[in-house]
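Sanity check record (used in CI):
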Amino acid sequence: MHSKLSQSELEQLAQKIKQWGQELGFQKVGITDLDLQKHEATLQKWLDKGYHGEMGFMERHGMLRARPAELHPGSVRAISVRMNYLPAEAGFAKTLNNDRLGYISRYALGRDYHKLLRKRLKQLGDRIKAEFDDADFRPFVDSAPILERPLAEKAGLGWTGKHTLILDKDSGSWFFLGELLINLPLPTDKPVQEACGSCSACMTICPTQAIVAPYELDARRCISYLTIELKGSIPEDLRPLMGNRIYGCDDCQLICPWNRYAQLTDEADFNPRHYLHTPELLSLWQWDEDTFNERLQGSPIRRIGHECWLRNIAVALGNAQADATVIEALEWRSGEVSAMVQEHIDWALERQRSGAAQVTQQLKRLVRAVSKGLPRDA
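Expected output for Epoxyqueuosine reductase:
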């Protein structure tokens, strides 16, 4: 195709784009205009409250996030896509309910999604350009300041749930999002109706109560922020609430009723790596920096660095049931790490030793009771 497209040609092209998107592995493709003006006040209010924490990039880019046309001049539409990532062997309960294991958010068990989605989006753009050589596009996968969820919502990919994630009646929320900004005035899709109703399960289940109001997240309290985005010390009052979650948190998705309809991924790259699927904390704790970098090559986890990795595991070990082997492992690393990690080791050791002392006292009481012939709960 050459020159300007007619309305009927644009409609045909939009249908082709959705078909090509599905052929490239996207479960749903929607198209929207770039007007996000109504989200600017909400974004500014969120920033003013400091809910972005140490994510300085959120504040630096300001309202640019709500003005996607400025990211790629000439763009008039966003092609929004989603791709399922939930693996068949998610092992939620098996990992979360065992404090000797480390829980890793299910999206991070396999290969880093950024490159995979961006490559597929570029392939989609190339197909469009082959059809119409005046097409100009730019793919985005968390690679620039853009409000991807409002775009996905406008494009009909789902509605924004009270946990601030995009939800779909047929697929839940276990999917990645990506966008292709383009200069073609394609016909747009309609948003779907919000369907959270009076349900507030995600707000109730959040371990740190980070969902401070419906559709409002205080990232400073969110375990995903604490274990991934935060580079310094984790607030001490939040550490006990983190349990064994060492990279991200899925609780608000796990409890969501719509996720009973979640679709499994068919992307082999998202299948769990064997040493990240139900991993033993003490085993992960032994990784030196070289091992960390080698085993997490191509994983999104690698981006947090070895220091934050140790910090997160130290917190999880501090939350584990008191055990001499845990105390020994913490002591083994003590004095050989940065001051930031050492602070978390000291905290974990204090909790472990306190727990061990309580167990010892309980055993002594039990022995005394048995020796006196008293009931064991005396």
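The longest strand covers residues 77-84. If this sentence no longer matches the regenerated tokens, the check is flagged for review.
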